[in-house]
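Figure S4 source data
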Amino acid sequence: MPPLAFCARFALVLSLLALPVAAMAQGRPINTPLVIGEAASPILTLESDRLFAESAFGRRIQTELEAARNALVAENQRITAELTEEEQNLTDRRGGMDPAAFRVLADAFDEKVQRFRDEQDEKARTLDSRNEEARRVFILAARPEISALLRETGAALIVERRIVIVSADAVDITDMAVERIDAAIGDGAGLLELEP
């Protein structure tokens, strides 16, 4: 079994065992909301995708990336229309041209189309890498706030909620983390600016 799979299963077993024990020890129901300074469980959960998506930083990045994607789609459509017109013009001229001369123009046109595809594919890959870079910067900026929540709740571990099969809502700190991170870094404009 790969080490990561073992760790995930071990964390799951711990969380399943810890929830009822922690709730009973504190004399409260399992789904009671988490209170700072009073651990609902030694293990807390966090949804990292939702943390990014619902944070001011994540919303700003997604808005900027969506605008860049829309601009890329519009550019693709414009260039495709130009190439289609150029191709039709070339086809219309074919009948009155020497076949060798036409072949030179057709080959040049094919190279132009391939260059366009390569350039646009590179732009799309750049947008994807910007998204990944933004997530990396966000996690680095969010880590101190998440660590503070761990200390303040008295918990020992925070795990990704996606790897947990069952947990009480009371141990999920995602909403609390979003609020703390928004207060600390806002939309992250000083941390990362996406180029237009």
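Figure S5 source data
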Amino acid sequence: MISEKYLRKVILTADVYAICVQHALTTEKQEIMGLLIGEVDEDRCISHISACVILHRSDKQPDRVEISPEQLCTASMHAEQLANKLNRPMRVLGWYHSHPHITVWPSHVDTGTQAMYQTMDPLFVGLIFSVFQSDPRLRSNQVQLTCFQAFQGTSELERREVELVIKSSPLQNYNLEGKYGLYFLCGISNLPRILIQEEVDCHDVKDNNTQDELASLHNDAFKTLALVHIVSKVARPLCDDLEERLKAVNARIKALESLKKHLQKN
């Protein structure tokens, strides 16, 4: 039975949105998933999401993803550690996953999964990123995002869209001895590492199930190809993006220093 209590609004920081989108764009063949962490205003039923955890997929599927109890436990521990570092109450507030090449709307499986989590936390929320959806008119791919909860309709479970606001990350978060900034960098840098570990685990299972040397060589070749793809299509672009971000930050620092000197002279 789903509680009548439900979310009114979700506020998502731009940094978390960037991590989720980059994660969703890493593959167009399987769905990806992760968990959302932040603070919640219980009285106003508003979630403030300011962090996320990228989950390791033990089973890659093009049409569904699942979160194991172990991963929920790990994410809860991560939220506690983050709360201690930032000296703020943090907890797991929701989950996100991707819909490659299909619409952004949640399936019956997604709605059922969301309903299950709401039995534990009525303010738990789900985000879905639709990626690799091409628009013939614009000749470009689109990224769409929906924020939803589940509720019991007259005959079956239905979805309820929740207002979503994407805001820039508060500057004060970056002044806590750089802890928030370091967390964002760790979230980005861990993405290629997690994808590589998924590929290694997947191919190790195949190697353990075969005794044929030729098949083993074939699997090794595909593993190498997959790892090269991750490095060239994920890790290197992320490095380039972070370098450009560093240049922009340094330019901003110089501009502010120049403005400070000007104001001090006057």
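The first strand starts at residue 9 and ends at 13. Confidence is low (pLDDT under 50) at residues 172-180.
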